[in-house]
Every structure is written in structure tokens, then in C-alpha cells.
Amino acid sequence: MALLTLLLQASVALSAVQCASAKQPNILFILTDDQDWHMRSFEHMPFLQKYLVHEGTLYANHFCTVAICCPSRVNLWTGRAAHNTNVTDIFAPYGGYPKVVREGINDDYLPVWMQNAGYNTYYTGKLWNQHSVDNYNDPFARGYNGSDFILDPNTYEYYNAYMSRNNGPPVSYKGEYSPDVTAQKAYGFLEEATQHPEPWFLTIAPIAPHSNVKLEPFKDLESDVPQYAERHAHLFKDYKIPRDANFNPSKQGGTGWIKKLPLLNDTVIEYNDEFQRSRLRALQSVDEMIEQLVKTLDQKGLLDDTYIIYTTDNGYHLSQHRLHAGKECGYDTDIHIPLIVRGPTVPKGHTTSLVSSHTDLAPTIMRLAGATRDDFDGLAMPFSRQDILEAESTTRHEHVNIEFWGRALPEGKYGQYDNPDGRTGGPDWAGDLPTVRNNTYKGLRLIGQDYSIYYSVWCTGDREYYDMTRDPGQLENYFDDDDEKMVAKRDAYELAGRPFAHVVDRLDALMMVLKSCKGRACVEPWSVLQPKSGIRMLQDALEQKYDVFYNEQPKVSFDECALGYIREFEGPQEVNVMGAWDQELSEPKMRKAPSFVYHGNPHLLT
């Protein structure tokens, strides 16, 4: 009888372990607004460092795919590239909440999927641009058991927020500090979530450290430094933006309108230093919120069952490349962003070099929930030590597809570019605010074992190539024909023993696939070009025997500098696909890829 009792106890214990291991984890997602990696703002957040970086894993090569908030958030919450969501701007007609609704995303995105997977879902903070006091109920944002959304036109006014709680009428929080209000809402939702047996998914999206903006549609837009809570006013008095090589450079890099930018004067530089001090101060409220959330989870015994994911929608530039405050460029200042994860199985104090993007986060979160979909353009990320080490050793993938359509909109009180592209005025919602119209481009970020590259093709026909192992500030554009030294460098350039022209041929072909890819083709673009070769990396594709094949590929181009994604204006859409390859032949056999390859099913080409 005693033996039977012991066996029964062991069986019960084993069943409990099995149930615990099968239990869906809770997920806490913190999403800041415009937080940079380049200026290392997250290193100035002591609680983030203590509770997340030291207790979790930093993904040091994480990128957004479109450097502006609304399209980036749609990319994040759908796992689909911007050219597939067709939300490419922050305002109509190409973006904003009405566009999200028209594209069917309000009925078909991550919070809805998580509810279907058995989760209670909660959200507080900024959701979409143009989600306003006038349209918050037309229709209501779907997918949440509890919500408190910050609404336009006051989204970026730190002391004048309007919020709608659980689809109720907007409430004014005038005089209260917006990130603190968002934090208080988060604590309430966390308390509510933990009263139910179901797992929960809580997203917290404060506006920090976005600039303070007063938006009056059809009138004007006033932008200035972020505002911060009075308790943080004494911080960072002596801080200055890192004077890296690309800080207000004496020799400008870039191309097009960026190459023409004048040096910033001392007044602007002093203002920009204070701008970044204010951004860091604004982030301290977020930092304090992190500590409170972690302590609450610990007190409730939930910390070990919860994944905490911390990231931002896009990066930020501030004096780099002579740029005024803002984003919307393809440089690492704008697309390279923090991602920190803490949770069950996640290695503590680890930094991984795996290449990932916001397109990967929805499939990752769905996998954590034990659910799957087959329409993602991204790939679930490894979180366990074993999976991370395995992915690092096998090189998961090395590319990030970058895209942007429309204008560059400078921020801050000195933020104007004197319309260097010859256009005047901004879009209707910005009145006469000077903007740069011709800021539509395709970009490609590639990080391999022995190379780090950024390549872009602009709607104007301009091109950029930066070898970031030699030029991390992205100042030496190998397509700068006006610079004799760069022409000489280009002529002498080699990567993996191959000359510049052959490297660019491969990048052109890769970008051709990625600019229209869908599904698995976005994750394994080389397999679209060479289905039977087993090629997964640039270095493999650089073999000399493929030179003719890549030289004869169509090139990325634009028929017009459109302000949104209009496929008909985006040049050729088909690539040459390699047929049966005979190792004894000196030239490949080729055929055209049918258009359906960009709508899934790349395996049909084999």
C-alpha cells in the first residue's frame, strides 16, 4: 500500500509537470515610440537593464522594415510586409486607422488571433495614427477584452491625452503626464488579467520618447522636444549625442536629397542635444513602469510563466547625416532598433547576433501561444538557449527587407529641409510644413558572417551601397560617381573575393524577389531564384559559375515617385528563375518566374 501511494504521488507530480509545461504562457509586450538603438537610449534605462537585459536576451540585430510608426505597427501585428498590408503611411489615403479598417486588418491581426488561441487580450496606449476622437467607434478596434486607447489629434501631447476605455467615449487627461497615465492603465489591466484562469496578452504602448506634437489637420503641425515628468527634470544635464563619424559629418554621405543637406549650425546642434536629453528623460517613466510590472508579476508568482518582450516601432535620427530630428530613412539610425526578451527558457544576460525583424514577431508570439498560421512573411524567432545557439550556428537567415513610400517629415522647431527636391508644402494634414516628397525607396540590410551591407534603390534612380564592416556610419556610398576616391574604392572593391559589380548583381536579384514577396519567399528568397541550388546566403550565390545568371536579372526600378504602394509604378515584377543546373555547363538554363511566385507557393518553381 505504501508503494502504491508513492507511485500515485509520483504520477500526480508527473501529470502536474506535464500540465505546467503545456500551459500557455502569459505575454507582456512593451512598445515604445521612436526609440533609438544608434544613440543607445536603452542603456540609460537602469530598470530595463536590471530586469530585462540582465535577466533576458538582447537581440542585437533586430530591425523594423519600414521606418515610420503606423506601417511598422501593422507589419508587427500582422507578420506581413508593408507591400502586402498596403498600409504605408501614417495618414490617409495610404495609411492610418481608416486604411487599416479598409484593408481588413482590424478583423485579422494578432490580438484577434490570440483571442482565438484562448487568450484574454488587453491594450493601453497608442494603437494607430488617425485613430481619433471622431472615429474611435467607426468601427471599434477589435481584438481586446480590455483597452484604453490614446486618440488623435492629441496623441503626441504629453499633458493633453484623450483616451477611450473599453470602447467608451473619449476622456480627457489634460494636465496628467501621458506615459504615467498609460502605466497606471497597464497596472489595472494586469490586475484584471490575473483574476482569470485564461492566459493573457497585455500590450503597453506609451508615446515616449516621441517628439511633442500638436496636430491641427489642415492647419499646421507644431513639433518640439518630448516633454517629461518634473521628477526627471534633473537628469542627463551633461548628456550629448555621441559624436560618431556620421554626426553632422564634414563630408556628407547618402544620395539624393540627403546628400544635399547643409551642415547643422551650433544652435541646431545644441537644440538637438537637448532634444535627446528630453527623450531620455521621457523614457524614465517607461523605465519605472518596467520595474513596477516586474515586481507585480513576481509578487503574484507569475514572473516565471510570463514572456516580457520590449521593443519600439522604429528608430530615430538626430544630427546623424546632417538630418534634423526624425525617422523615415533606411539608415541604421532609423531601422536598427532594440529588442529584449525575458521569459521561460530565455537565456539570462545573453546577447545574440541573429538577424530578425518586426515581421518575425507575430509568428513568434503565435508560436508561444501554441497556435500557427500559414500566411506570415516572417519566421518565428528562437527564444530558448538551445534554439538560439542552433540558429546562430546554422545562420538562420541574413537579410531584412526595407521599404518606404512617401515623404520625409522633419521634427523639432528647426525641422525643415528647404524642399531640396524642388517641391513645396506638405500633405494636406500638415498644412505648409516643408517635407521632402521623393523619399520612396527599397532597401536591403544584409548581415553575414564576414559582411554587413546596406543597399538601396530610390524612386529617383539613385542608389546606395555601404560596406558597414568598414563604414558603420554609412558615409561612403560606393555609387557616388562625383567622388573620385569612392570611384577608385569601388573599382578595387571585393567581397568574398568577388568584384563590386557581381556583388550588386546578386543584391539586385535578391531585392527583386523581396520587394514583392509573400510567405515563404520572404524568408527564403534565394530559393525563388535558384530553387534547386540549396543557396541560402549571399556568399553562396557569389560563386563565379552563377555570374551570367545574375547579370541577366531585371533590376529594381520605379516608374514614378508615388506617395504610397502602387504596384503598377514599381517597375518589373518578375525575376529569372534558374532551371535544372548542370555542374558541367558554363551557363545556367533560365526561365521566367510566373507572377504567382510572389503570392506564395515558391516551391512550385522546383
TrEMBL record:
Sequence ranges assigned to domain Sulfatase N-terminal in this UniProt record: 25-371
SUPFAM superfamilies in alphabetical order: Alkaline phosphatase-like (SSF53649)
Alphabetically ordered keywords of this record: Glycoprotein, Hydrolase, Signal
Reactions the enzyme catalyzes: an aryl sulfate + H2O = a phenol + sulfate + H(+)
CDD domains on file: G6S
MF terms (GO), sorted A to Z: arylsulfatase activity; glycosaminoglycan binding; N-acetylglucosamine-6-sulfatase activity
PANTHER family named among the record's database cross-references: N-ACETYLGLUCOSAMINE-6-SULFATASE FAMILY MEMBER, SD21168P
Protein name: Arylsulfatase
EC number(s) per entry: 3.1.6.1
Signal peptide: 1-22
